[in-house]
Write a structure and sequence with these properties.
Two copies of one chain form a homodimer. Chain A has eleven helices and ten strands. The first copy, chain A, is an alpha/beta fold. Chain A is globular.
Chain lengths: ~280, ~280
């Protein structure tokens, strides 16, 4: 097949059945130029070794996933989260990526206070953003679909993510635009414009929306073209807002994970070309 | 136990293991004054018989669930949906309720056009609203949680529901405010105000948000008090917006349905008193 689209980046989670060397090898074979990495497999392989492997293959690390979980109300939980995020920032810098994606965190046990949880995210970013900036890393606040609001991320819309990010300079804190999380939101197109005008689009990620959702709803993201999201329209919006960076495909899908990882990467690159490129 | 709160109404789906006579009997025993009925069990029992049974017990029918599914793009599908909604309006009138709840419908097979689907809802309501008004029935557009946007309801926020309803006189088309669907939305409190100011709150329904969500996500609604939604705060907002009507508890939950229906009704009334009343 022809080489992958030059804008295409594969998020490591999409093909998590591949080891890091297998992933790098498959990217090289396909002409894929970028990878979004995850902390856990990177640490399992060794941070320095991972950085060397990816750099040696000429692959750009388009993002590191993920920091965040900044909603703890207790001082001890907050301190632990800040420590972990500083470590994530250090890891991002070591991998040579300029973007750390943040999944902000859900409600503390027994709490129903979304507003308070969102305020604590701003407060925590006040500590983390300068630390990240000193290391050449931007923090990308990712809104997650509202079905994750209680247990994973109290930031549910692009508007909320920007409300948080705009407390800080654009070179320190931006947002992650992911089709899976915002496709349903009629306010999102205008918020993409707002994000672009402010120079806040740190990364653009794709996954398609398919139903029925599986239990727990985490691992039901659709391969590009399998669902109802108009990928070309979202790509055009993000481009019109001024974003010129790589586009990551990030799928969490038990069915896709059960198959061959190299074939999945090839198919994902092909889908990107067909539906976006 | 003491009698149920006078504002409390039980949605029939919450205790679907009860037959209609069992439900009416249990409501009488508990002093529950209102029921929200569903078309399917009413038709199975017989419309006239159901109307007589409920009226004879002195129960108010607070809503009929449900009409809607108005997003078909093909003329035949649209005509079928309009016919079915006229039948639902007739049934609501026969049952003596002034509110027909509408679940607007998802995307047609193969379509990703949310905007077009929402426009078709407005178009269909243009035919249905006068028909309903002549029969003393208001149509309540219900926003469903965004996790249902593709396959069940393209109306995902209270703002969108009001945008649709406001094409019509308030005495013809309003909205359903259901905590389960809107609790995550930081724009929803202001939209409750907007709905109240326009006289558009047709009904107020409660369910709590619990995780993990089950496969298919439909039947995972939490008993009042089991989740993270601040029921008292939402009740206060809806009351401040001027709503003085009954409050329905509508739970879809496989676990609750597996138990005894009368006990579930008793417990639901108790939870209402504890967390809202």
């Amino acid at each position: 097949m022809s080489a992958a689209d030059p804008r295409f980046s594969i998020n490591q989670m999409t093909v998590k059945q591949l080891s890091l060397p297998e992933l790098v090898d498959a990217c090289t074979a396909l002409g894929v130029r970028g990878v979004g990495l995850w902390r856990e497999p990177v640490r399992a392989y060794g941070l320095k070794a991972a950085a060397g492997l990816v750099r040696g293959a000429g692959l750009a690390v388009t993002t590191l996933c993920r920091g965040g979980f900044l909603t703890a109300a207790e001082p001890a939980g907050r301190a632990t989260a800040l420590d972990d995020n500083r470590a994530a920032i250090d890891e991002a810098a070591a991998l040579g990526t300029g973007v750390l994606v943040l999944v902000s965190g859900g409600l503390p046990e027994g709490s129903g206070d979304l507003v308070g949880a969102r305020l604590r995210i701003v407060d925590a970013l006040g500590e983390l953003a300068p630390y990240a900036a000193e290391r050449g890393v931007r923090l990308a606040v990712e809104p997650l679909h509202p079905m994750f609001a209680s247990d994973r991320c109290v930031v549910s819309t692009l508007a909320q993510a920007l409300d948080i990010a705009e407390h800080f300079p654009a070179e320190q804190v931006g947002v992650c635009v992911d089709t899976y999380h915002i496709w349903w939101d009629d306010a999102a197109p205008a918020q993409v414009e707002r994000a672009g005008a402010g120079g806040r689009i740190c990364t653009f990620q794709l996954a398609d929306w398919i139903t029925p959702l599986p239990a727990g709803v985490l691992n039901g993201r659709g391969q590009i073209g399998d669902g109802c999201i108009d990928m070309r329209a979202w790509d055009a919006r993000v481009a019109a807002a001024g974003y010129r960076g790589p586009v990551e495909v990030e799928l969490f899908n038990d069915g896709l994970w059960a198959g061959d990882g190299r074939e999945l990467l090839t198919e994902t690159a092909r889908r990107f070309t067909a539906h976006v490129g």
